[in-house]
Amino acid sequence: MTETFVEGIDVARRFQQGEVMLDALQPASFTVRAGDRIAIVGPSGSGKSTLLQIIADLDTATSGQVRWPALGVSGALRPQHIGIVFQSASLLPTLSAAENVEVPLRLLGGQSEPRQSALKALDSVGLAAVADKLPDELSGGQAQRVGLARAIALRPRLVLADEPTGQLDQPTAQLAMDALLRSLEGTEAALVVATHDLAVAQRLQVVWRMDHGVLTLPATGSTP
Length: 224
Prior knowledge:
Layout: E1 4-17, E2 20-33, E3 37-41, H1 48-55, E4 63-67, E5 82-85, H2 97-108, H3 114-124, H4 140-152, E6 158-162, H5 170-184, E7 190-195, H6 198-201, E8 206-211, E9 214-216
Parallel strand pairs: 3-7, 3-8, 5-6, 6-7
Antiparallel strand pairs: 1-2, 1-4, 8-9
Helix pairs in contact: 2-3, 2-4, 3-4, 4-5
């Protein structure tokens, strides 16, 4: 039986803006299972990032329940069980590419050879040759792929990416997606990508749609 990584039941998120309550996410139920490749699509401000942050345990739902049955409990999920890729790579400027990837490995501990694990992660995204370069010596696409390597270095079971290609041109965006998908080949890891780019969404097996906080799931498999 396929393991369930994330289960949301009637999950909603509301924000106070002045005297008005905004429904960033209206009540929604969803499941992420081992091996899933999911795109969350919708325009800016539709609620994609809010949903992703709740799945990542970076934000708390106003109502409803979120569980991570096969991953663990809230507060103990990142970075070992859940890896996160942001729109901006957010690399530490004084550290090399390899050292940036090493940071979570060293913080978490338990790695006998963090440098080797970092180099392996960089190699998986095609960046072994730039391991010793500083962030300002990298192109935008290379920096984003270093961010990908950092997220997958601990081999998390769930990878969440929030607009990972939003600052890249189309050719570079596709290279970044190539690297991300290739790094997960042959694993049971699940991938959820929030994106407004349909070319990115088409690379994934299932599409969830967001519109004004409303999540719409396909009855079965879907294409954009």
